[in-house]
């Protein structure tokens, strides 16, 4: 039995070795082409030659990266920096990218040491069935040169962080501007009017009590309107129910307020940080609003789980689908909000429905701040 | 009438005490934390309690939780909950015991002193006082195709007033119609919503709230 299980495996390994062997030798030609092109860069004609050779090598290396995946625990990421379009700056960028030179080293090493390893593994595979094949060593050796260096990884990370930070600060600045404007035109103006009514009422109290009373009533109404405006504003900044009940309670409250029946299922062993909680809340609120407005659904659901250091939110409805971030339904905003926390959003919404939106937010959970309340919904 | 007050902001607490004193209530305890409130409610067994949702130590919904916990131990203990914002979720939790003697109002409603005092008295008597905003949200949840869609504009108005907790005569005064007309509207509403008629004011209100909450 065991021998039979091994045979196809062994056979396929032989197949793989036979694939890698000629590919490695082909690399010699590419390396030679590259070196030749580098020499000719002294003349102008070398520029397009070098760019062409690099493109070929990168495609070839990427192909090898995908071929190696079954032998490694994780796929090999691509290390290349983005390239400018103009020919001369492109040539310079290629020369300055360490990945170019690591590729070249890989081509040479793969054609020599790689070939020896593969040949050895082939021989062993053919004559001695129980020998662990060298092919995994071969794959790891390849990975050493084909994967991005820590430096390249960090550079990519910095680019990503810079972009999301700009987005986050910009969003925050416009939020603060909106709040300032709302306070200035709303509550502040109402309080001024209130003060005026009170001042006039004070003057008229003895001379014209009837008019004073009318002004006092006006003052009361003005106060009430100011409160309503501040209340709406607070809801938009940080909903009180989120403070009081955390994400589970706040999402239940959102769901109850909708016409559509919404099934809520939340399993969070603790509370995420305030900013993450708030981002998740507003993302869900936006999605439920979209569902109510556009999806023409008869039911919807929200599930929240936590595992492997990520909070996973899945929201769906049985509507007519066809939602895209491009249709200006606020989904781009959601995506941006989540990106600030390295969160992602994927949208699945085929034309006939259903729509399923999955959001992942890496975060840590603290132990629950409030005592677990009896679930009432 | 003996009252317990729970409010952590001194300014508002003193205001409430002054207001209630002026209307012949006796404030037996004015507390500012959730645990103190629960203790005061169980110890004093007041005729009615006026409670802020958000209280220390957690500054979350300590007040609401304490009120619900007290009502679980003393069913029907009259509690009027005040808040800067109203949530259907909280209204539902307050009403879930099916017991009367409960109120849930925005803090702004204190401005209309007569109505506020009337609401406290109603809750103390075992009735209800739900904020118009809660009722408006509940009504908005029902689609035009639901049985609510069959109500006339006037009936809807009467339904709203009733859901807020008002008696027939109070509704009649507010809508400038006769008591008889109010009864007629209420009979129609109950028939259209297929609710069993009841002669008791507060039971009718609970039936309507349960219906709207579903």
Automatic annotation (TrEMBL), chain A:
Task: Show the stretches that span the lipid bilayer.
Answer: 12-36, 42-61, 104-128
Locate the Putative sensor domain: which residues? 19-134
This entry carries the following GO cellular component terms, namely:
membrane
State the signal peptide span.
none
**Reaction catalysed by this chain?**
ATP + protein L-histidine = ADP + protein N-phospho-L-histidine
The organism of origin for this protein: Nocardiopsis ansamitocini
The UniProt keywords, alphabetically, are: ATP-binding, Kinase, Membrane, Nucleotide-binding, Phosphoprotein, Transferase, Transmembrane, Transmembrane helix, Two-component regulatory system
Query: Carries keyword Oxidoreductase?
Result: no
- Which protein are we looking at? histidine kinase
UniProtKB/TrEMBL annotation, chain B:
Task: Name positions with the PTM 4-aspartylphosphate.
Answer: 52
Q: Which GO terms describe its molecular function?
A: DNA binding
Q: What is the designated name of this protein?
A: DNA-binding response regulator
Transmembrane residue ranges? none
Which GO biological process entries does UniProt record here? Answer: phosphorelay signal transduction system; regulation of DNA-templated transcription
Name the Pfam families on file.
GerE (PF00196), Response_reg (PF00072)
The chain positions of domain HTH luxR-type read 144-214
Task: Quote the InterPro entries the UniProt record gives.
Answer: CheY-like_superfamily, NreC/VraR/RcsB-like_REC, Sig_transdc_resp-reg_C-effctor, Sig_transdc_resp-reg_receiver, Tscrpt_reg_LuxR_C, WalR-like
Which residue range or ranges hold the Response regulatory domain?
2-122
Matching entries from PROSITE patterns are given as: HTH_LUXR_2 (PS50043), RESPONSE_REGULATORY (PS50110)
For this UniProt record, the keywords arranged alphabetically read as follows: DNA-binding, Phosphoprotein, Transcription, Transcription regulation
